[in-house]
Amino acid sequence: TKAPTPPTKAKEKASEPPLGRQNNKTAPPSPPRIISDLRGRSYQRIAFLGEGGFARVYEVVDQQGQNLACKVVTKDSLKTKKAKTKLYAEIRIHKMLEHPNIVNFIDCFEDEDNVYMSLELCTGGSLMDVFRQRRGFSEAETRYFMIQILGACHYMHAHSVIHRDLKLGNIFLDANFNIKVGDFGLAALIENEGERKKTICGTPNYIAPEVLFDTANGHSYEVDVWSTGVILYTLLIGRPPFQTREVKDIYDRIKDNIYEFPDKRPISAAAKELITSILTKDPAQRPTVYEIVDHPFLSQGTFPPYLPEAACNGVPDFS
Ligand code: ADP
């Protein structure tokens, strides 16, 4: 069978960051320098942090002098019912979550032109930014990142939330190199036990096979587990496992489970074994988050309690 045509909701570019604002010839006007909510609170906009497919994110300072991130969605982009439903789902889900490894959702409000979400500020940028500088990490550093990502994942699943877009670009870092999972724009809530989701969404390199190829059965929490396997491989090997130029070819490789462990980037047998078990095509056979955390790769070996700032530029010495 052929790979399906690229799904409408999946961002269609193979590499990160995802495509910027699409179908928009002109950039929307910047939000005001002083952003005010209806309760008389105001935030001073001080810097532009980045943009994704749906929002622009700014650094702001609140009246207490605290620096925050402010995610801005223009009301112009919320004219369709679908766009509104999507934003409300993001807000509803993100608001529910409170965990040291999840970007803290502080507040949301609106003015005439925009909807705003104030969020915990992640001054370390995304894991993608650090990854680009390092092109891969040591096993000890990877353990440090993975255990926090898995902690966030376990918490989300325990609160009936599937993130559905876990990837380096959506995993942020605070000033102390703590992981903060963010961007709940594709997250879904499982409202009835056993419920399966049918919307095809995600980012090509990280998308689980059942999302693309088992649309009749749908998907659930296991899609996030798959993405943690892609993240683990990427952190250690230096590029995503199924990556090729064409998105269609990525989907073919995901369907046929084609990826390799290159000789020029040797990793431990335990790491290989864990990646192989997570990247299992059948979601029912994939390990649970508990089983992953218990795996020798994560439960044995050097485990740094924190990463020094120098980790941005080279492998830190943990000896
Ligand atoms: P979208 O939902 O449109 O994809 P994201 O939530 O991924 O938007 O944010 C877009 C960009 O803004 C990110 O890639 C990052 O550079 C920046 N950003 C988002 N949230 C934060 C945050 N809490 N702290 C710092 N930067 C952030």
TrEMBL record:
One function term, GO molecular function aspect: ATP binding
Keywords, alphabetical: ATP-binding, Kinase, Nucleotide-binding, Repeat, Serine/threonine-protein kinase, Transferase
UniProt domain Protein kinase: residue ranges: 43-298
Gene Ontology process terms (BP): mitotic spindle organization
Coiled-coil region list: none
Annotated TM spans: none
Sequence positions that bind ATP: K71
Keyword Repeat applies: yes
Gene Ontology cellular component annotations, sorted alphabetically: cytoplasm; kinetochore; nucleus; spindle pole; spindle pole body
Family that this chain belongs to: Belongs to the protein kinase superfamily. Ser/Thr protein kinase family. CDC5/Polo subfamily.
Protein name (Swiss-Prot/TrEMBL): Serine/threonine-protein kinase
Species this protein is from: Cylindrobasidium torrendii FP15055 ss-10
Residues of the full protein shown: 38 to 356 of 839
